[in-house]
Amino acid sequence: MNSYPLLTPVPISGLGIHFRGDVATPIVNVRDKGAKGDGKTNDTAAFQAAVDDVPLTGGTVIVPRGDYRIDVTKAIVLHSNMLFLMDPAATLAAIPTDSGRYWVIKVWEVDNVRIVGGTIVGERTGHQGTTGEQGYGINIQSSTNVMVSDINIRNCWGDGMWIGALGADGQAVPAVNVMVNRVVSTNNRRQGLSIGPAENVVIMNSTFSGSDGTNPKAGIDIEPQRQGFTRNITISHCIMTRNRGCGMEVHGNVIGLSVDNCVFNDNFGYGVLTNEEHDMNEKEPTGLTFSNNTFTRNGLVGALIAGHSNYVHIAHNTMVGNGFRYPLNPGDDPDRDWWTRHDAGISAPGDAEHSVEPELLIREAASNVTVRDNTFT
pTM value? Predict the structure, then answer.
């Protein structure tokens, strides 16, 4: 068991995102709508009835302690102007399904929603099918002013959380002003957290661990692809650990990312990878800052700045003891074990600090990269 120093939280008031913190009335208790919480009854209809009973002008759904079973092919669909408040001892557990796409909680095309407390458990261990990879714990799309806090999410068929957009490529409506605070997302089949087209997202004081099952198997994957752009993302005081892929992947169409005071350790792939897919006509990831982070015991390079990543600042990080899988052994199959194929042709600029291996690698195609005041092995 690894131990870490207590992570210092960033004051919410300093993040530029403001959420009301009160418990709004009227208050609707899911038990009053027939939810049993006995670990056997399908409580989905009772939960939805409680949500629907909250006026669109505002209110709160209360979930007392209990073991609630949820039909994830229907999901709990939240609407605007509401607080979904779970007791710390409340669990929403997915009923096993053969569907490759499902949701425990859906937050789609709504505004001003808070989800607080409790545990969400997916059904990957009891999943009845073999295809698909889009089973989500919490799915936020095309919504504004959403806060998720103090929740544990685990065992989803796809991602613990998804923040993104609805709509066709180039016309998608992004999620805007989303905060994730004190969330633990672990043992999910694809990612702990995926971010698609979104703007003004803050992820803080959270842990994303143990992703394993289907690629990319990362702690956090920021990959809007051609659907749109991801802009102004802050990831602070988080831990990405023991993922079968990378701790974090950052792909094309990402503009403006700050990662500070995070821990990337014991991931089988890279601690952090930045790259873009040229065949998808993506804009290179641009405006990336990595500061005051720790990268240790990752299987490949601590941080790989690949593709045409542009305007990248790497400062005051500690990169120690990475590369237990670097270089690859003859006969290794990277596609079997992690998302990004290691490129033996990686070359680094002449600056000595840029070429420390296997702690930090920067491809020559990357531009406007500054590296300063880091600590290496």
Answer: 0.89
